[in-house]
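User: Please fill in residues for this 343-position structure.
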C-alpha cells in the first residue's frame, strides 16, 4: 500500500524532496497545489516536471478516504458521507451547512474503544486509529467539494467516530497540517476537539497551550450516574476530571465546553441541574445541552422539550452559561453519537 501523501507535514515533504535530489522549493509548490487549490492529483501540478509528478503519483496515495455513500438530510443542510479507507475499513463524516457556516464533523478512529452506552460508534467497538493523513483527507474531501460551490469550510469539529485523545499524536499532526500558514491555513480557533475525558491527555493538551477549542463529554452531574453510561468514568472519575478541566481553563485562560446529553428521567431533573451547576461553579465554561439522539442498542429516550427547557432554566438561574443544541441530521443518522459503520 502506498504511503498517504497527507501524512507529510511541510518539513517532511521538504526532506523528501532533498532525499530525491529535487530542489527544496518543490515542496512548497506541491504543498500549495494541494492545500490552496485542492488539486489532489499530481498530474494537475502543471508547473512541476513531468517525471516528478509521475514519481509522486507512483509512490504515494492521494485518496486515503474514498466516498462510497452520501446521504442528505431532508432539509438538504446536513450531509453524511461514508468513506472507505485503503484497508477497507469504514468511517463516517458529516457536513453541516447552517447560517453562514459550513461545519464539518470528522472522525479520528474507525470505531471507538470507549463504549459509552448511548453512542452508536461505541457500540460497534474499536477497529483502529486513523493516520494523520486519513484525518486530513476528510478535511480536503469537503474543502474540494465546497470549492465547486465557491464555499469554504468555516469550522471543524473533531466529534465524529472515535476518541481523539486516544489518538492524540495523529490528531495533533493533522491539525498542524491543516493549520500550516503556507497551505490550508485553517485557524485553530475554528477547530473543536471533543473528548470523553482522558485526564492525562487533557493535561498534556493544557501544557501544549494550543488555541484549539476543547469540549468534554460530561453527561452526568455525579460519578454515580456517569458510571452507568460512560465506562471511562471508572478510570477517569468525574471529580478528578472536573479538577483537570478547571486547571485547563486557569492555565490557558480558555473557555471549555461541556457536552451534556439529556436522557429522559435519567440525568435531566432540576436537582441534577443544580448538582451540575455546583460542580461547574466559577469555571470558565459553557454547557451544551443535547437531547439524546436515538441509537439502536440503547433503549432510553432523549429528554422532552419541557424537561430540556427546565434543565436549562435551572442552569441559567445558577449562572452557568448554556445552550440547547439543535438536533441536526438525525433523520439520516448523522446526529451526535449516531455514526456507525459495519466493519
Ligand atoms: N469520543 C469523543 C467524541 C465523539 S462523540 C467524546 O466522547 O467526546 C461527540 C459527542 O456526541 C460526545 O459528547 C458524545 O458523548 C455525544 N453523543 C454520543 N452519543 C450520543 C447520542 N446518542 N445522543 C447525543 N449525543 C451523543
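Assistant: Residues filled in for all 343 positions:
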Amino acid at each position: 500500500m502506498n504511503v498517504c501523501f497527507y501524512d507529510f507535514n511541510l518539513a517532511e515533504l521538504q526532506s523528501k524532496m532533498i532525499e530525491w535530489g529535487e530542489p527544496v522549493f518543490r515542496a512548497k509548490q506541491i504543498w500549495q497545489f494541494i492545500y490552496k487549490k485542492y488539486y489532489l492529483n499530481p498530474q494537475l501540478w502543471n508547473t512541476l516536471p513531468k517525471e516528478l509528478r509521475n514519481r509522486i503519483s507512483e509512490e504515494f496515495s492521494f485518496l486515503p478516504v474514498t466516498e462510497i455513500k452520501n446521504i442528505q438530510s431532508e432539509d438538504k443542510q446536513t450531509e453524511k458521507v461514508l468513506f472507505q479507507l485503503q484497508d477497507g475499513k469504514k468511517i463516517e463524516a458529516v457536513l453541516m451547512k447552517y447560517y453562514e457556516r459550513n461545519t464539518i464533523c470528522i472522525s479520528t478512529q474507525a470505531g471507538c474503544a470507549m463504549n459509552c452506552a448511548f453512542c452508536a460508534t461505541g457500540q460497534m467497538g474499536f477497529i483502529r486509529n486513523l493516520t494523520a493523513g486519513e484525518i486530513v483527507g476528510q478535511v480536503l474531501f469537503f474543502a474540494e467539494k465546497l470549492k465547486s460551490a465557491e464555499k469554504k469550510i468555516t469550522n471543524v469539529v473533531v466529534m465524529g467516530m472515535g476518541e481523539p485523545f486516544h489518538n492524540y499524536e495523529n490528531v495533533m499532526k493533522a491539525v498542524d497540517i491543516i493549520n500550516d500558514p503556507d497551505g490550508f491555513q485553517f485557524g485553530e480557533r475554528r477547530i473543536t476537539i471533543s473528548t470523553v475525558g482522558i485526564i492525562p491527555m487533557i493535561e498534556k493538551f493544557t501544557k501544549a497551550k494550543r488555541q484549539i477549542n476543547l469540549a468534554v463529554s460530561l453527561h452526568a452531574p455525579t460519578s454515580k450516574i456517569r458510571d452507568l453510561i460512560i465506562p471511562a468514568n471508572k478510570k477517569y472519575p468525574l471529580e478528578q476530571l472536573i479538577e483537570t478541566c478547571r486547571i485547563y481553563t486557569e492555565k490557558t485562560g480558555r473557555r471549555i465546553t461541556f457536552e451534556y446529553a439529556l436522557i429522559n428521567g435519567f440525568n435531566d431533573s432540576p436537582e441534577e441541574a443544580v448538582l451540575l451547576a455546583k460542580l461547574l461553579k466559577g469555571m470558565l465554561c459553557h454547557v451544551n445541552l443535547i437531547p439524546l439522539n436515538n441509537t439502536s442498542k440503547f433503549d432510553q429516550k432523549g429528554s422532552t422539550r419541557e424537561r430540556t427547557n427546565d434543565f436549562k432554566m435551572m442552569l441559567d438561574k445558577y449562572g452557568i452559561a448554556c445552550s440547547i443544541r439543535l438536533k441536526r441530521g438525525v433523520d439520516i443518522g448523522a446526529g451526535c453519537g449516531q455514526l456507525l459503520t459495519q466493519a
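For context: The first helix runs from residue 10 to 19.
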